[in-house]
UniProtKB/TrEMBL annotation:
UniProt protein name: Translation initiation factor IF-2
Annotated signal sequence range: none
Gene designation: infB
Residue span(s) of domain Tr-type G: 16-185
Gene Ontology MF, one: GTP binding
Similarity-based family: Belongs to the TRAFAC class translation factor GTPase superfamily. Classic translation factor GTPase family. IF-2 subfamily.
Cell compartment(s), UniProt: Cytoplasm
Region (G-domain): 19-167
Phylogenetic lineage: Bacteria, Pseudomonadati, Nitrospirota, Nitrospiria, Nitrospirales
The species this protein was found in: Nitrospira lenta
Amino acid sequence: LEAVVQAGEGDERLEPRPPVVTIMGHVDHGKTSLLDAIRQTKVAEGEAGGITQHIGAYTVSVHGKQVTFLDTPGHEAFTAMRSRGAKVTDIVILVVAADDGVMPQTIEAINHAKAAGVPLIVAMNKIDKPEANPDRVRNALSEYGLISEAWGGDTIMVEVSAKQKTGLDTLLEMILLQSEVLELKADPHRQAKGTVVEAKLERGRGPVATVLVQNGTLKVGDVFVVGTFSGRVRALLNDRGVKTQQATPSIPVEVIGLPGVPSAGDVFQVVSDERVAREIADERAQKQRSADLAGQTKVSLDDLFARIKEGSAKELAIVIKADVQGSSEALAAAVEKLPTPAVRIRVIHNGVGGITESDVLLAAASRAIIIGFNVRPEPKAANLAEQQGVDVRLYTIIYEALSDIKAAMEGLLDPTLKERSLGRAEVRQVFTIPKAGVVAGSYVVDGTISRAAVGVRLIRDNVVVFEGRLGSLRRFKDDVREVQQGYECGISIENFNDIKAGDVIEAYTIDKIAGKL
Ligand code: GDP
């Protein structure tokens, strides 16, 4: 059905569209200040009331041309969208405080932009400060492949002060220049397609979403599908909170008339027919439910490995985190030099410190694996990695990391080896115990059910109904570490109570992670 709706493309009448810009950089380097400064000087121009409404994006006008800024600065938001398949940003503005210089999140931002293949313009901010040293910044940036035009390179760098509002016009002109090079185009004559950049439930107004129109023109009364919802546009508000009848490509609008709150990154698609819209939404909801049931992950590395094996994928991206810079650099250099004829290995980010959520998002969006050397994932990052199906491998010996990757590349490290069943138990009887929840009186039919399991899954009629963690494991009244084949025990699963007699509970471990942590 979706294919039918997407068809009918071609026969396009492409016209230039404004660039969409995201601001990134280290904390406190002035991302928010710069966004505000540009908005104040440009949006408020000629408008008595100034800015009344705040939505997730705004558009400014420069010499009669428009530029749209996404109002969620930072590479995490950027990459989170990208990991959902949404490409909304055309140009990244990298803010570097000229007094502070290149910092860890500056480097992260550079690598996130590079991994996405989005061109980058440097705004050297806080140039008003006496300690500002733009040449030092240029020098530091050149180490990351960003060579200033002033030094014969091709990276545009503009000195600005968000505080004193200087250099902003030059920055905007450079954005327009870059966007001309990119030849950004869209067809305003067709039905709109866009991406949700922000959505929330508002008292009195119901669900509202800021949608960035990417192609076509969105109009009041249009029928749409977004995520698992369908509906009709009741009203459109522009970035100043003013009602508008339509929005053309690269223009953000607030959409009213949604039956629910979609997620940032969801595609917003206009379709001709209300019934078709409803069917697509239902179909998606159905798919989502069955995916949830099967415990599927969003990004499948297994898939990538399979494609590498069959020869249709040619590149493995890697994120490296290590305890000290020396190690991360040595590892990155060694990994890229590995003799793997069939596949190119590319280190898309290497840095110092624990594995963070931002690293996991980057890996998910780029289908990369993460290698930690003498570091561990932060707890939130570990959860996210599990949820997103990102492969995290931890090492303490460089040689081991290298031989592992080499082996993986030669097809020896079959990803199915990663996970190993520890044992299975059959549920015989179910008890509901106050406070403790549902406990499954079970009989271990093979292997062992162990507290050391990374996870358990509940299988009903050969279908995985739930995957989660072991809650409690008891023999009679005692908590035990493991129960072997042929014994009875009581098992509970964290956050899951829908257990029935006849179900099978399987405990499993993930060798690479469990072995190294
Ligand atoms: P963000 O964390 O990157 O969003 O940074 P903010 O925009 O919150 O700015 C951090 C601090 O730097 C704030 O105290 C700002 O007032 C200050 N700041 C931002 N831009 C400038 C600037 O151009 N000059 C000076 N002197 N201070 C600035």
